[in-house]
Design goal:
It is built from eight helices and 13 strands. With 238 residues, it is of the alpha/beta class. The strands form four sheets. A seven-stranded mixed sheet has the order 5-4-1-6-11-8-12. A hairpin with a 2-residue loop joins strand 2 and strand 3. Helix 5 packs across helix 7. The longest helix is centred in the last third of the chain and has 14 residues. The two termini are 26 Å apart.
Length: 238
């Protein structure tokens, strides 16, 4: 029987412009850049479907039609994939808040970046206060910048710390379990980042740190995209 966490939807943030990859594929948004025979976003869906997730909400913006028009039902039958398009740029945090405002029955969900895949599985039952961020040590992605400060099992700042305080330098994996309570604390007007959305809950001591280990593949630069392509090539057909 799936745990309650597995029954929650996954919100994928796929509205960014991906300016550093524009020269590689100017006619596609970053999550749709092809790797082997599929767009990168396909591997995100498949990765989480293999863990028992079946419902996905995709926040789109830049070149939204390319993402929304792909034959996802044929490529990944059995998944419930729906899209929420930004009417104007909201930032990653604004996009999450917008989804909660539109989805009245949504009490919590996992949020993942549409340009990042972490091989570690999502915890079955996050011990979230108002949010729980998955943190990875530096050696999971050597070119990532440490950006979390933690105190035991809590996040005390995000986005500005030179080093994490749990063991090795620590960074945000781009995977967070967030509740409506955390979203409701926010008083900013968009656009704002996801870290800015979490700031009030972090300051209130209500954001847990879930330490994980797993390779982190972020396709934000041509070099990182090539690294993921090697990973897929070595892993074999999907």
């Amino acid at each position: 029987m799936p745990s309650s966490s597995r029954l929650k939807p996954i919100l994928i943030l796929a509205g960014g412009k991906g300016t550093r990859l524009a020269a590689v594929n100017p006619d596609r948004p970053k999550p749709m850049i092809p790797v082997a025979d599929h767009p990168f976003l396909y591997y995100i869906f498949k990765h989480y479907a293999e863990q028992g997730f079946s419902e996905f909400i995709v926040s789109t913006g830049h070149m939204a039609g390319v993402i929304e028009g792909y034959p996802w039902n044929q490529a990944l039958p059995g998944l419930n994939i729906r899209f929420q398009r930004e009417s104007k740029p909201l930032g990653t945090g604004g996009a999450v808040a917008e989804i909660f405002s539109r989805e009245a029955d949504l009490d919590a969900c996992w949020v993942v970046n549409g340009d990042t895949l972490v091989t570690a599985p999502i915890p079955a039952d996050p011990t979230a206060l108002e949010a729980a961020m998955l943190a990875l040590p530096q050696d999971c992605a050597p070119d990532a910048v440490p950006n979390l400060t933690t105190d035991g099992k809590k996040v005390i700042s995000a986005g500005t710390s030179p080093l994490g305080t749990i063991g090795d330098p620590t960074f945000d994996s781009g995977i967070t379990y967030i509740t409506r309570a955390a979203v409701s604390r926010n008083r900013r007007q968009p656009p704002y980042t996801f870290h800015e959305l979490l700031e009030p809950s972090i300051h209130a001591g209500m954001v847990a740190c879930l330490q994980q280990r797993g390779l982190c593949y972020d396709i934000g630069t041509p070099e990182r995209l090539a690294r993921f392509e090697r990973f897929i090539s070595e892993r074999g057909p999907s």
